[in-house]
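Narrative of activities, Objective 1.

The group set out to show that a structural description can be obtained from nothing but a protein's sequence at a throughput compatible with the screening campaign. Below is one input-output pair from the validation batch, recorded exactly as produced.
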Amino acid sequence: MAKNLRFDEINRQNTLNLLSDLVNIPSYDNEQGIVDYISRRMDKLGIKYEITEVIPDRANLTAFIGSGDKSLIFNSHMDTVPPGKPEDWHYPALELTIENKNIYGLGCCDAKGSLASMMMAFEALSNIQNKLNGRLILQAVCCEETKGRGTQKEVKRGITADAAIVGEPTDMIPMIGHKGGLGVEVKVSGKAAHASAPEEGINAIYRSVDLVNRLRNLADEIMNRRDPLFGHASLAVTQIKAGQAPNVIPDECIINLDRRLLPGESVDTAFQEIINTLEADKPTSGVSVNRTIGIEPCRISSNEAIVKAVKQGMASITGSEPEISGFTACCDMWSLVRGADIPTVILGPGKTSMAHKPDETIELDAVCQAAHVYREIALNWFGSQK
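Output recorded for this entry:
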């Protein structure tokens, strides 16, 4: 750990208590409980903050400390995916459980671990904000798991900064970009009939088989597209829904696709490629193709000042400068970079492989270390007295 730095406010027990509180507040359908919780903490510390409604019953909390020309955003999300089936969890999904060095609970990794670490660093820095030589902004956002609407709202209302860090589970590897995400829904029409007389109908499932095979061939080709930081691009059929009843010929089949894009690819081009594949050399009538979500891939230069600050901050705490990489999922970086031209690094404790699954877990030591790293990055960014 760097010399002459005091981390009295960031300790293991305080960090554990904060993360426990966040995990114990369900936030998979709305974040109001966490907004109220953070508000109380900010009030106690006398920190200025704003609450902004994004959609009814869903809001962001944005807090501010320090002043000056230079600025930095800490951004992480409060929402989680739904817990799924309780029987799939060995530990209670909606309360924090500690076993050895590991913490279990819905959202502890994605991304309440990052949020807790950022809050610990932010609150510690509030005690010396007159020495920050700049403005630090904490964005606790809603709706990240549903199209990133929380951060988009902050961009639209004009909250900006010279740089940003988005807290997501990267195993504390700085990531200078992320893949894009394209969701596509393919509807295949047929004609209903009694199952005892299938010849009187048109089976939408049968009509879909050829389309699924075409998509599978496209997926195999897309897997060969690679990037040294981001791995391979991908296409997957993730849902097929059809049929009104077991004894009715289905009059519609819906196919949902997930397409992950590398930097250099675009949502529009990828969407058109899917359409071309479905039409191929024999256009299919009664098929509609609609885009359900479109997040462009995003990447910043490794020479950006915030990348250097992150590396230096991590080296001060861990003793070594990390290698940069790329985030294989999507996150709110794209809103900050593409919507507000804010150079952004994705960095947070925990592993992406632990997210969106039962028995989600993170190491307490990783959350504590991340808080120290975030604090050091901010001090380096502002050139503040330590």
